[in-house]
Amino acid sequence: MHRSLNLTSIPVWKNLKKHAENFSRPDRHLKYLIKENSRLEKFSLKCNGFFYDFSRQRVDEKVMSLLFELAKARKLKEQFISMMNGEKINTSENRAALHTASRNFSGNSIFLDKKDVMPEIIKTRENIREFASKVHNGKITGSTGRHFNHVVVIGIGGSYLGTKFVSCALEAFADKDIEIHFLSNVDIHNFGNIVSRIEAGSTLWIVVSKSYTTAETIANTNLAISFMKEKGLDPSKHLITVTSKGSPGDDPKNPVLSSFHMFDFIGGRYSVSSAVGGVPLSLYLGYDKFEQFLKGTEEMDIHSKDSPCEKNIPLIAALISIWNNNFLGYQTQAIIPYASPLQKLAPHIQQLSMESNGKSVTQEGHSLDEPAGAIIFGEPGTNAQHSFFQLAHQGRPFPIEFIGVIKPQYNYKSKRVTNHQELWANLISQPTALALGKEDKNKAKYFPGNRPSSTILINNLSPESIGRLLSFYEAKTVFEAFIWGTNPFDQFGVELGKAIASGIRNEIELKNEQKDHSFEKMDKITKFYLDALFSGKL
Amino acid sequence: MHRSLNLTSIPVWKNLKKHAENFSRPDRHLKYLIKENSRLEKFSLKCNGFFYDFSRQRVDEKVMSLLFELAKARKLKEQFISMMNGEKINTSENRAALHTASRNFSGNSIFLDKKDVMPEIIKTRENIREFASKVHNGKITGSTGRHFNHVVVIGIGGSYLGTKFVSCALEAFADKDIEIHFLSNVDIHNFGNIVSRIEAGSTLWIVVSKSYTTAETIANTNLAISFMKEKGLDPSKHLITVTSKGSPGDDPKNPVLSSFHMFDFIGGRYSVSSAVGGVPLSLYLGYDKFEQFLKGTEEMDIHSKDSPCEKNIPLIAALISIWNNNFLGYQTQAIIPYASPLQKLAPHIQQLSMESNGKSVTQEGHSLDEPAGAIIFGEPGTNAQHSFFQLAHQGRPFPIEFIGVIKPQYNYKSKRVTNHQELWANLISQPTALALGKEDKNKAKYFPGNRPSSTILINNLSPESIGRLLSFYEAKTVFEAFIWGTNPFDQFGVELGKAIASGIRNEIELKNEQKDHSFEKMDKITKFYLDALFSGKL
Of B331, B340, B357, which has the smallest distance from its Cβ to A185's Cβ? Predict the structure, then answer.
């Protein structure tokens, strides 16, 4: 697909730059913008129980119309359709990006290299359903015949964060008498913490790694196997893998209870709806709940693919990101859900967005002429209000995405308002306060306002709603990349650290073997740290 | 104390701006700087088992010498001493900032309004020691005579994050058969989650609120009291308070098992070493461990007060922050501890730093002419590497503070290297990779490098070490404010949202009382959200 090499040479990009200058004028302050007639009607959208309000963003009708022009110039819709159709849009790795296929229930085929990928995806889903059901009804048990009551997911990054987010969000639906634990970091403390909370005989370990060579995951798997052996258990009856066909985790020489496949056309950070999320979430919640979650993601996929730009929620959210990033100059974006079950959303989107869009090179291999990617962070509200909202209101401004849930999972009344209403009083007031600001002669009590935010509402915390929310962020992320012209599916930026770590690991091994090994080959700073590690003190 | 109104008019500030321009030159790339002779020796410091390495920051000897000049021009040491001596440096609230007094074991008096504050502080410590000991030996029990095995801390923001950080960091020392839980958010889900994990009869609730009017904390306390009554317990035998003398939480009309005092000269986010942290941490770990932690904080306080600028670790760290913020233009700062027990450090420092320094006004009430405050975020390594380090290496650069622990709490050997060594291979490699970068003809695999970081090492995860780390960040934060000339102890920026929320809460109450109440007085956007809340769907 032909795309211009330089963002700054696109005519509408130039127009946006020019128009953005107007937004430093006092009369473009949000306190005026939000009072315009029909502000909310013009700058909000609703679809399938998902509401997106960008009325408190620093935009006007002209901005939006230029941004839609940009969307067309960058062929966003066409690119999204190509992605869903299995084109190899991950050009640097010559791969498709078919996470949407993992939740395709349309019955339609999706061809990749002339082969329909759907039969294998459907078969994997069926395998998951069957396996989970057998665990739940006790047909599959551990080596001592006991029901599985604990599931430990061994995985890191994309094999961890998405599943963690969804399992937290849907905790209220976990009625299978199974607790879920996550072993991600190689730090031995994590392992110690988990084994203190499980019972070996009733624990099922799920190793999630596409290549089955991820250093942290393999180190933790080795620990888990030793632990099982110490407890007199047969690891092959307590371990399942989610991995690529033919990887060391899918090798009959290393027998496991069951193995589920990952495909190279679904990247880690987009893999929650594949077996990566499917296996642990189906064990934890039941396959039916996982499928409801998938149906929610599919609904939002269809919305993203079929809605025209002007009605397309993730696409508009992506345009707003670009506006904030490249035209208003914000480098950071906070995500603040007013719902504790969504507490792991920000860490997941942190990975999804920053690993996808923290790039400086176009799909075609040219240097980007504008910065891409925002730094994402967030905590649930109201906690965030009592933590860093001082800076949000009176320090360096950054855009915020607020998220509210209309129906709570529980309803307690505490004095005159319910806790949920208390939460909403805050959810409603913060975007207003950030936008309006407040004059005060005492400069310490002056609020400049003009701080942009969006508000997302979802009806409830059902599996479908969580699915829509996840798919919204996935689509928003790839739309952003399509605008910048970057590849949101590779991650070469993690390679250099790994390569250097490998050389250091070799030195450590040498020293473990030969006590008199000195680190003379290393640069002085590295040598200092290696000496500190081995001396055991400063 | 006289300080210039404008940062930009300070001569050394101008010199720093000028010198900073040189750092865009290719020959100032970190890959050259770190190879200079004695780089590590010149740009690192060690004190009391705390090592601070800024050799991978984008600084040279001239930068440091100008920064030390700035430190002197801004009288950083004098201000720190004034703070520790009880001067009312929180001018906007006419208060002292005496968190350091809460860990003063020197025997010296500290006078505030001509009254020595130490006797009251020492008495509070003694009360905590006595109370914790009686709980541990069963002399104090709940209303059914059962030992307390669960402690729930009800508090938010500064009454939560610091204690949470320290309790996580020191979890390995918790040998009192007491589990600790934190109830912060008003979101009812948190309450439900905690009551599912405790036993009412053996649970002690600690309400932490200086004013005893914090909306979230009071709503949660009311829930806790109802819960205890439902379970047939006497709340006054299961509830203690940490609050100001004379607050509604320290009122004989509302009897509680015990009440501990907070002082208006210690702000929430600096209060871990006061009764705020002292009561829960002493119950969880034993008072002795808490005192060891205090001794660590005191050590670093003394270092910060007594060391000359050129040898003062928190002061230098603050200078580096200012250099990165105001001269090199970085707006964000990540904190990446390679130790899972430190996983709650970043959320705590996020509050400590962003609430202290997210300001735009000087102590004297003038608008700042330079931006202050950085956005702080972070996750433990190596998790962070598998999440957002793509952006760190190839996207918009941001400075990182790495933290390593020399001695692990546990030692497992996994194949040829231990898990702890694996962690260190990564801790060592990341700052190097970020600094050096790597040439590659394929731009997708090109690493620009020149990305600054510091590395902190601590000997172990002992209470003393954690105390030093906490005090390091507290001192660094106030030194930053002293440079900007801002007040790190007030937080007026949280008031506007609260005021608007209060109006919305009133409307919700009216609607709860009268079903036909419409929200006509509200602006249209607010009305839309209130209608959505009451209609229960989109």
Answer: B340
